[in-house]
Amino acid sequence: MQSLVLKLERDGELKFALLIATGSYIGLRISDLLQLRWNQVIGEDYFTITEKKTKKTRKVTINPELKTILNRLFIQLGAKENDLMFVNRFGDKPFSIQYVNSKLKDIFTTYKIKGQYSSHFMRKTLGRRIWEVNKYSDQALLLLSQLFNHASVSTTKIYLGIRETEISNLYLSL
User: Fold this and answer.
1) CATH number for position 33
2) How many whole angstroms separate alpha carbon 148 and alpha carbon 132?
3) Are 126 and 21 a contacting pair, CB within 8 Å?
4) Position 147 in a domain
5) Which of 61, 73, 90, 142 is the 20 to 30 A CA-CA neighbour of 153?
6) Number of structural domains, the chain?
């Protein structure tokens, strides 16, 4: 994901470099991600947000690598602290989800990235990375289930496509 973020920065797609980096590191649903303001993240170690879908309050810790990206893009974009992070070209509203999905499709095509190009890929990317870093443990799945506010670990497995991967690996192991 970092290489995509760097390519987008290089090519002047700063807002989408920011969106993909932020979404992949914090795993919020797109409806929550699009409401973030710079003053919630710049110079902060964490922020709290009430999720639109679940109405639950969530504390989000900001990873040091993400902090570096946020600081760099804040300067490059010439943003102000009270600004929305993902603002439309008129500067008055957040991106629409439809626009994000359309733009992600273009980005995935341009950079020859395979897979789902919806805004949900960032949240799933975070989940997959956490599961992988924790050596595919059941404990990681339990924590991800809580992070994503899923009703059960089996929901999280389906969400991350784990069952599908396990079945595919069975065939490959023959």
Assistant:
1) 1.10.443.10
2) 16
3) no
4) no
5) 61
6) 1
Specify which residues 37 forms β-bridges with. Answer: 84
User: 50: which DSSP letter?
Assistant: E
Strand 46-50, strand 57-61: pairing: antiparallel
What counts of helices (H) and strands (E) characterise the chain? Answer: 10, 2
Range of the domain at 95: 2-114
Residue 138's contacts (CB-CB under 8 Å, 6 or more residues apart) are 153
Q: What's the pLDDT at 44? A: 97
pTM: 0.88
Look-up of token digits 């943003």: 79
Tell me the two tokens of residue 62: 């900001």
Q: Which of 104, 86, 103, 106 is nearest to 95 (CA)?
A: 86
| C-alpha to C-alpha distance for 107 and 13, rounded to whole angstroms | 10
Q: How far apart are CA 21 and CA 70, in angstroms?
A: 9
Q: Give dist(CA 39, CA 99) in Å, integer.
A: 24
Considering only 4-18, 37-51, 131-145, which range has the smallest mean pLDDT?
131-145
